[in-house]
TrEMBL record:
InterPro entries listed in its UniProt record: Homeodomain-like_sf, HTH-type_TetR-like_transc_reg, HTH_TetR, MT1864/Rv1816-like_C, Tet_transcr_reg_TetR-rel_C_sf
UniProt name for this protein: HTH tetR-type domain-containing protein
Keyword set, alphabetical order: DNA-binding, Transcription, Transcription regulation
Signal peptide extent: none
Pfam family, one: TetR_N
A GO MF term: DNA-binding transcription factor activity
Keyword Transcription in annotation: yes
Residue intervals of the HTH tetR-type domain: 11-71
Length: 194
């Protein structure tokens, strides 16, 4: 009797390869992500990676899309609990937690050379969608007269990104980075409101 061999669904193979790629990324940064290193981590032939992601750039773009999805989940605090300012504070804390827990993924989507730097990339489109979550939260605040929600959201992002980037680089000038981050977010929110 012959047993029919079951094939793994293509989506499952792609997801397994992306998980292997995340492991390589988390361990060594974007420079460590190669078709061969991911194939080795996944226990497949390099051709399996090429067949699903074309090349290293395709693999990095898929990783960046997944990182943006994870970031979106980290900052999405819902709309039914707390004041708009409280929700924004929680979202900013989620942003910080994501960056600190996954510094290589954070760098992949925000550092120089990111797949998100190509305006025509689906990664850039996903990044804009994630930014819209922040815009919607900021729009819920009682903004100063004449302050556009997109401009206000960009200011919030500039502040939180700068604080997190300094913390990740280990160049913060305060003894308590978490408290400093909270103070930064509170100051930004106060500055945006009426």
């Amino acid at each position: 009797m012959t047993v029919a061999r079951r094939r793994t669904a293509s989506e499952q193979v792609s997801a397994a390869l992306l998980s292997a790629a995340e492991t390589v990324l988390d361990r060594g940064g974007a420079g460590a992500v190669t078709v061969r290193s991911v194939a080795r981590e996944a226990g497949v032939a390099p051709m399996g990676v090429y067949n699903r992601f074309t090349n290293k750039d395709g693999l990095l773009a898929a990783l960046a899309l997944r990182a943006f999805d994870d970031l979106a989940a980290a900052i999405d605090v819902g709309s039914d609990t707390g004041s708009p300012a409280d929700r924004l504070r929680r979202a900013c804390q989620g942003y910080r937690r994501f960056a600190l827990a996954h510094p290589a993924r954070y760098a992949l989507i925000f550092a120089t050379g990111s797949p998100a730097s190509d305006p025509a990339s689906p990664v850039t489109t996903r990044g804009r969608e994630v930014f819209t979550i922040l815009v919607d939260m900021v729009a819920g605040l009682a903004l100063r007269a004449g302050l556009d929600p997109v401009d206000a959201a960009q200011a919030m992002w500039n502040g939180q990104h700068g604080a997190v980037t300094l913390e990740l680089a280990g160049v913060s000038q305060t003894s308590d980075a978490a408290a400093s981050f909270t103070e930064t977010i509170d100051a930004l929110i106060r500055g945006l409101q009426t």
